[in-house]
Amino acid sequence: MRKSLALSLVLLSVNSLAEVNKDDLLKCRSYADPSKRAQCVQLLKSPKLRVGSSECKKKLSCWEKRFREQAERHCSNAFARRAKYSSYWAGYWSGQDFDKVRWIDQGKGTMMYYEKESSVILQCRFYPSAPSQVRVSIAPAI
Question: E strands along 89-141, which residues?
Answer without folding.
Answer: 100-105, 110-116, 120-126, 135-140
